[in-house]
Design brief:
The complex is a heterotrimer of chains A (239), B (316) and C (294). Chain A has 239 residues and is of the alpha/beta class. Chain A is built from 11 helices and 10 strands. Helix content of chain A is 42%, strand content 26%. In chain A, the strands form 2 sheets. Chain A has a 6-stranded mixed β-sheet, sandwiched between helices. A 4-stranded antiparallel β-sheet of chain A has the order 2-1-4-5, with helices on one face. In chain A, a hairpin with a 2-residue loop joins strand 1 and strand 2. The longest helix of chain A has 16 residues. Chain B has a domain of 212 residues. A two-stranded antiparallel sheet of chain B has the order 1-2. Chain C has one domain: ABC transporter involved in vitamin B12 uptake, BtuC (Orthogonal Bundle), CATH 1.10.3470. In chain C, 77% of the residues lie in helices and 3% in strands. Chain C has a two-stranded antiparallel sheet with strand order 1-2. Classes of the chains: A alpha/beta (239), B mainly alpha (316), C mainly alpha (294). Chains B and C meet through helix 4, helix 5, helix 11 and helix 13 of B and helix 3, helix 4, helix 9 and helix 11 of C.
Amino acid sequence: MLTVQGLAADYGDVRAVWDVSLEVDAGEIVALIGPNGAGKTTLMHCIAGLHRPSAGSIDFDGVALHTLAPHQIVERGLVLVPEGRHIFASMRVLENLEIGAYSARARRARHATLRWVYEIFPLLKERRDQVAGTLSGGQQQMLAIGRALMGLPKILLLDEPSLGLAPLIVRDIFAVLRSINAQGLTVVLVEQNARQALHLANRAFILEQGRVVGQGSGAALLADVSVQRAYLGLAVEAG
Amino acid sequence: MKSFGRGGWRLLAVIVGVGGLAAVPLVVARADILNLLFLVFLYVTLSESWNILGGFAGQVNLGHAAFFGIGALVTRGLWLQGWPFELTFAAGGLTALLFAMLIGVPTFRLRGTYFAIGTLGLAEVLRITTANALPGVSSLTTEYVAHYDLAARYELGLALAAACVLTAWLLLRSRAGLGVLAVREDEQAAQATGVGALPHKLVALALSSLFAGLAGGAFAFYHISYYPELPFTSSWTFDSVLPVYLGGIGTLWGPVLGAAVYILVREELAVSLVQVHQIIFGALFVVVVLALPGGLVDAWHRLGARRRAITRISPP
Amino acid sequence: MNPQAVAQSVVFGLFVGGNYGVAAAGLSLVFGVLRVLNVAHGELLMLGGYVSFWLFTLAGVDPFVSVLISAPVLLLVGFALHRGLFVYVERLEEETRIKNSLLVSFGLGLVLQNLAQWAWTADERSVNTTYAGGSAMVFGLVFPYTRLASLAIGCLAIVCLDQVLRRTYLGKAIRATAEDWRAAALAGIDIRRTYLLTFGIGAALAGVAGSLVSIGSTVAPTLGAAWTLKALVVIVLAGMGSIFGAFIAGLLLGAAEAISTLFFGSTYREVVGLVLFLVVLLIRPQGLFGRGPR
């Protein structure tokens, strides 16, 4: 479904991503794990159209993404939930959700989609008139995901959804991701919280310093001793 | 004897150049040449002074005419009252500096837009208020005009322009200057390394406004009659900024080159096109800001580099 | 100084202030969304004024009706200016963008002013309708009908803008883009198009303000500079990013100028705005209604 080939991306003179290649098949949950500064966010920004790659290609269902603007990519069904949530704090919850359905395709179906999002996150329905900036971190993350779902994505990308959230909330969110994946939505998850991500994912890639240094099924990587030492040890301390 | 070096030759060239220009009135009696050169000197001062703040410190000043106008207003006013010219000249420059601080201190703490708005506002407010308060033409008495010494004005203009360029040069070589440039590059980074952004911006502003005010004083000394609001009009700001971008913003000689070219070309066009020339130059300015941020000097260098690169690649 | 004279003065000040508010609202909108400060905004207003003047002089169109024409005309002018010029400024990142937008719009303003002078001469123009004289008397204060109508139209324009921003999808897109353009892009909003439309709307508001100015006052090529200044002072007073705040701050400025004129004469009227500007920056830089230093 999504194929990244030989991607390279720079910030001025600094290269953040070197020659990254990966594929995501329809219906999968794929995790991207790795330390801070590995280039994971840059990679997500390139895929979503916020950053122009310096080399390589990104292909989604036969369409080349790396020349498109972000809104065109959303129209084609790829939606990113950015790191740090980035909800529109001055607007109400419902308005945030409505904006998520901005693209023509999503706007047509927005009433039905909104019902679906309210089922997944009942709390968003309760607080629909609340100003988004007054929500807690976990609630904002749910709003960010809800807004992304309003765009009727075929594939959902999430950049560090667990960042700054309590473990219980993280568990709830990951449960939501599992359930919407079961409904057919492909999920790509960038996470520092490697343990939970690997439990959730079918497959995972390990990124370090802008390169893919390992890949495998979620279970295999969880069991791998070197992975445990490098990433899961840290995860245990943090969460 | 110590080697003279490139710097030495440059300095010699400058001294000879300035000396030569100073000697012009001894040799040339034609008023139109002296008038034209005076105008060039005035514009060099205006441009170089804008460059000190805009090019070195990176602060956009859309109201440079305010300082020019204040200098002109104060100098003319006091001089016509009978004060000795030298005193009024200094007073004009210092008053401009004072007003500059009035705007700079509250606005430099904040983002760049506030300073631009403040100076733009100052210029426009002073223009309208001056037009309200002094609607009549300010004229020198006919007996004074009979003894009008163009050479003196010429020399004043030259001295002022030379002093301004010299000041810019000294600033670049000083520690304060390093701080100013650091603030332009990255204000937050500069602040973090202990280079106080506010004092450095104020230093640049002080020098910039002082010379603009003195230029205003020179203008007041030079013109026989004019409407007091004239020096406050935004076309003076434009005439200060365009040469800087033409010649190369942030460089020492860019504004000098730009001013000279601008005046000479403009005087040629003004004969034939009058109003249209402001439209043309306005459009040119917009194009230069967007397309040639380094100015003509930089474009020339880059063109030269490309030519050299091409000749290197192509076969013998 | 009797209270009646002061009140009457304030009333006239509010009428003028309403126009300040409409002029400022357009500028505030554009700056809030595009982060581009268009100091040629006053020249757009001037063009709106000329549209009304020429429609009245050549075709007898009532100036209040011509507002409906100058708004779309300036909308198109705004689109053209954006596509032809400001789109190049937007490509830059924020710090350089603001600086270059100042310089570029400064040059643009001069070009527009000179074009107007070349095309229509520097003469001051005014629109003199037959019904110009009538007025209403309330509490012993005079409320000229034309001024009332102008204020009403100004209010209406602001309310329309607010409704568009709050209720329509375009309005939501504009607000989202102003707040966080990356998140807006990721939500599927076409940022380029939003910028274009916002700039157009800003220009249209300038056009409306210009038409209102032609009714109450005179129009000349030099009008632009003075009105840009007013708009800038008002948005600093109000705080960037607040539309209703801009309108109210406009009214306040108008009233303050009127009172100052009453006590100190009209010569130093412009100084009031500058003083208020400096005072606000010293005491409350985010403005009266602003959300925080931006």
